[in-house]
Amino acid sequence: MENQKILVLDFGGQYNQLIARRVRDLGVYSEVRPYTTSLEEIRSAGYCGIIFTGGPNSVFEENSPICSADIFELGIPILGICYGAQVMAHLLGGTVQHAETREYGSTDMVTDQGSALFVKVPQTTSCWMSHTDFIAVPPAGFAITAHTSSCPVAAMEDRERKLYAVQFHPEVQHTPQGQDILRGFLFDVCGCVGDWQMSSFIDRSVTAIREKVGNNRVLCALSGGVDSSVAAVMVHKAVGKQLTCIFVDHGLLRKNEADEVEEIFRHQFDIDLIRVDARERFLTRLKGVSEPEQKRKIIGEEFIRVFEDEAKKLGKVEYLVQGTIYPDVIESGAGDAAVIKSHHNVGGLPEDIGFKGLIEPLRDLFKDEVRRSGLEMGIPAHLVWRQPFPGPGLAIRIIGDVTADKIRVLQDADAIFREEIAAAGLDRDIHQYFAVLTNMRSVGVMGDERTYDYTIALRGVTTTDFMTADWAKIPYEVLGRVSNRIVNEVGHINRIVYDITSKPPATIEWE
Ligand SMILES: Nc1ncnc2c1ncn2[C@@H]1O[C@H](COP(=O)(O)OP(=O)(O)OP(=O)(O)O)[C@@H](O)[C@H]1O
Ligand SMILES: O=c1[nH]c(=O)c2[nH+]cn([C@@H]3O[C@H](COP(=O)(O)O)[C@@H](O)[C@H]3O)c2[nH]1
Ligand SMILES: NC(=O)CC[C@H](N)C(=O)O
Ligand SMILES: [Mg+2]
């Protein structure tokens, strides 16, 4: 049985992924698709509801993202949020205007409890606003169901056509009744029953993979990280021995990591594994390259070339499995979102790929959801809770060009940092921590001699979904020990700094 599902139609907002997430948290499957998705596709996918997201544009400006007005004729219930609400008003003949002042932050709101959205919400409540434009006049057939002191149409609905719109953001935590409002839309308006759980996601994915693959062989790009391990186990559940995993040692892994991954994987799982020594070829291609996006693209391409070479040795392989997850996709600039960085497995992929297609069963999930599905499939907790390590590895933690010597220095410094964090019992509390070899050299004095050597930056963050993160408040004693050990034990380092920026404005990795 197919699960019911909700389409989150992406108009370029910041919280699109959060909307999808909140819907899944309510037990309803949801997926984010661009606003350009064709009506035919939407109709045939059998969605039981659509949510229009917010977005940075103004509906009345030229070239703003707009969908076809025929979407309202599909008979599928729609909820517009913020820009999405304005799209609905604009397309159906209402008036959207630019306000003199922005409405931003927590705002008192009066609701009509006769609305399916507000039955569980007090008449006077608060909501979180982030807009300048507003709906001045709703389209014909719409009733106003909420207002604030400066926003005449905080919510409107055409009950008969099942079209709903809210100017505020029910998906953010600062709208205290937000989940009740979404629940009202999903359950009362769309008729969702809440039939989705992680286990049904797994079952459905396994079935879909089995159908897609048929009798063919598949390769899985396995890094030993959480995402690809979960993807591999899922594909193995689907097609068993037709799956071969390829683990690439590109020479940019952490100290001793290649051996550790091989050891763990061979013992833990009954899955075919090939370890490829590609250290030479990656280092050769990266020689003299210092621009971060260029490094990422070279690595993305070289990964694919290695997979193609291995596939040839195995005979005919149709599909490549990757452990791509949602943040990889959105940061690589999916839909109308900006390119933050090209993740090697998405934006860094070459155009010509020697496979019929990719299989990415986790593409719509967040890290914490991937972990939940890993635990559900019986992957041991110590693997599921490993901290993430980016595919391009130390190449994006060495600022500037990458050389074998720099890799060694960084591996040693990073190993000390990780050892001390573990010794202090902090490895579960800090969700990702690592050392960065900055390209900066400075003057120091060691053993009464002048030194002119590199600076290591330490980075530690706390986060749940890796989309936003705070810097970890590592105790000074621990930082002190790490600093001492690195300058004493690792050559060519004479200065250590700790990175105290959150994401945003920084990102977790330095490149
Ligand atoms: N060394 C590698 N060998 C083979 N495939 C890799 C390697 N590094 C990354 N990949 C592929 O790229 C994908 C994305 O890497 P990413 O680091 O985001 O995920 P992961 O390694 O599976 O999990 P984690 O985020 O926990 O490190 C992986 O899921 C895997 O398919
Ligand atoms: O597989 C990956 N390929 C990449 O190209 C890549 N870039 C960043 N990351 C990881 O993604 C999370 C968010 O990182 P940023 O805040 O640096 O964007 C962090 O966990 C990063 O380690 C990557 N993972
Ligand atoms: N957050 C939003 O979706 C904003 C919508 C629109 N850009 C406005 O300013 O009103
Ligand atoms: Mg990884």
Automatic annotation (TrEMBL):
Catalytic site positions: 82 (nucleophile), 169, 171
Broadest EC class assigned to this enzyme: ligase
The protein's name in its UniProt record: GMP synthase [glutamine-hydrolyzing]
Coiled-coil parts of chain: none
E.C. code: 6.3.5.2
Keyword Ligase: yes
Organism per entry: Solibaculum mannosilyticum
Keyword hit for Transcription regulation: no
Subunit structure, interactors included: Homodimer.
List of residues binding ATP: 223-229
This protein's UniProt keywords: ATP-binding, Glutamine amidotransferase, GMP biosynthesis, Ligase, Nucleotide-binding, Purine biosynthesis
Role according to the record: Catalyzes the synthesis of GMP from XMP.
